[in-house]
Amino acid sequence: MGREATVTRETKETTITVRITIDGEGRSSVSTGIPFFDHMLHLFARHGFFDLEITAKGDIEVDYHHTVEDVGIVMGRAFKEALQNFEGLKRYGHAVIPMDESLAMVAIDLCGRQAFVWKGDIQGRVGPFDVEAVKEFFKAFVSEVRCSLHVNLLYGENLHHKVEAIFKAFGRAMNGAATKDEQVKGALSTKGIL
Fold first, then answer.
1. β-pairing verdict for 4-10 and 14-21
2. What is the DSSP letter of 167?
3. Domain boundaries, the chain
4. CA distance 82 to 145
5. Per-residue pLDDT tens digits for 102-155
6. What is the pLDDT of residues 23-55, one digit of tens each?
7. Nearest CA to 102 among 154, 167, 40?
8. Which of 33-64 are b and which e, b meaning 16 or more Cβ less than 10 Å from the residue's Cβ?
9. CATH 3.30.230.40: does it fit domain 4-178?
10. ∠ Cα 48 168 162 (to 5°)
């Protein structure tokens, strides 16, 4: 069985379906109604070599917050299901990615516990998109996939470039952590499980 999953979540605020193939080619089809967010998710899939399909309908006339956060929830659930209890994985991944004048570092541990650390300033809007929602996406993802995720925006000037560097680094780091390792039998832990 391939490492893939499809998860749907419906609330009074959003209806979201995510399909993920871990061992993919970086293909993506994303429609959230939020063009800048779609762009970031395309980047994540391409640079992580995940095949990703997302359809989301949310109350974006109120705010983008619910849709962005709920996509994080459903993506986290889909990854957790596709990664099959984190068995046989390298477990750790990291990336330092430049985007023109911006530089971001992301490190991840697929450990079965949730921890989220954010360093760096992103405030303001890219078009109508309030970039503070990016943190909510990552918080939601971490809570569902149950991983330790550290995001450090080291520096940058252009807000679009800052967020883009983060999502590209997230894709590369997730790819590294999700990679199968023939040396790893079961979970990479002295406890035997994660």
1. antiparallel
2. H
3. 4-178
4. 10
5. 999 999 999 999 999 999 999 999 999 999 999 999 999 999 999 999 999 999
6. 999 999 999 999 999 999 999 999 999 999 999
7. 154
8. ebebbbbbbbbbbbbbbbbbbbebebebeeeb
9. yes
10. 170
